[in-house]
Specification:
- This protein is an alpha/beta fold and 317 residues long.
- Helices cover 33% and strands 14% of the residues.
- The protein contains 10 helices and 11 strands.
- The longest helix is centred in the first third of the chain and has 19 residues, at 20-38.
- The N and C termini lie far apart (58 Å).
């Protein structure tokens, strides 16, 4: 417990006596410092505690303490859980292993195994109510000249099973590739905000309809905000029609040039108010301005085309 207090900046009180004014100043400073340290992400705490690397057991113990101390905030969405892909890959593997071995008999060294299983089980239960997850891909240790090719190697693309967060409402991922996000389709009825930055994909369908079978046609019923930035997308396809509750769609800083099909399905999105297509390669909108009036919702959508060789405009849909 002392170790946890140290990590979260809740140190012991100052033993020396001082005047009331000095005491009040120190208390204000302590509250301000405590607020700052409490806002530190789990990844920062992990680097501070284990700068030379961390074992799987140490990771699970620290993560369990962190999540338990912020359980209310993590459940309500007031605070987010920040993990990198190696952490989440190891975590999802442990949870999956826990499910597979829950009915098996105990083995030698069972006391230690039972402790690890209990910690994993406790984490898996708490993760069922996690509201906001931030996921990062670690920077490659290779030289800058080789970093691009190294980052795309299969050894760096660790799978991250999102099924351990069944009630997740906000997912922010940076540098994570779509194929790493296993079981993302299971969150179609819970996600409200989905943000993916610097992930490689040709079109939104790699995220919105990448599953097989009839799941491709199931809408993202609660998703109000979608951000796909710096993903090297070239095509805005019909998969955006699955965003039936979307209010804001941001696809800026890509390589979009074929947007005709995507714009043609905007009438199917009755709540859409803003579509950001700035910083792309859209050169012409000829033949893309014929829209039917939507039966419900706002009759105008603000589509931003800045830095495409086109001007910002509002189109009737």
């Amino acid at each position: 417990m002392d170790e946890l207090n140290h990590l979260f900046g809740n140190g012991s009180k100052n033993r020396s006596k001082s005047s009331s004014r000095s005491s009040q100043s120190k208390n204000n400073h302590r509250r301000q410092r405590s607020k700052t340290t409490n806002d530190v992400s789990f990844l920062t705490l992990l680097r501070q505690k284990y700068p030379q690397g961390v074992s799987g057991e140490e990771l699970m113990n620290l993560l369990s303490s962190h999540v338990q101390s912020r359980q209310r905030e993590l459940r309500s969405g007031e605070s987010n859980l920040s993990l990198n892909t190696p952490c989440l890959s190891h975590l999802s593997m442990c949870v999956s292993h826990q499910r597979d071995t829950s009915s098996k008999v105990a083995l030698p060294n069972a006391s230690r195994m039972d402790h690890q299983r209990r910690a994993t089980l406790k984490l898996s239960i708490m993760f069922r109510e996690l509201a906001h997850l931030c996921l990062h891909q670690p920077k490659s240790k290779s030289n800058s000249s080789n970093s691009k090719s190294k980052s795309n190697s299969t050894s760096d693309l660790l799978p991250c099973d999102l099924s351990i967060f069944p009630t997740l409402r906000v997912l922010e991922a940076r540098g994570v590739q779509p194929k790493q996000l296993l079981n993302l389709n299971l969150l179609r009825s819970t996600l409200e905000v989905l943000s993916l930055e610097s992930g490689a994909m040709a079109s939104p369908s790699k995220i919105l309809s990448s599953s097989s079978g009839t799941d491709n046609f199931i809408p993202w019923s609660r998703l109000t905000t979608l951000r796909l930035s710096k993903c090297n997308m070239t095509v805005l396809d019909a998969s955006v029609s699955l965003l039936t509750s979307a209010v804001v769609i941001q696809m800026n800083d890509n390589n979009l040039h074929d947007v005709g099909i995507g714009l043609s399905v905007l009438p199917r999105l009755p709540r859409l108010q803003h579509l950001d297509l700035s910083f792309n390669r859209i050169s012409s909108l000829v033949g893309k301005s014929k829209y039917k009036k939507r039966k419900k919702g706002n009759d105008r959508v603000c589509v931003q085309f800045a830095y495409n060789g086109l001007s910002n405009l509002c189109i009737s849909v």
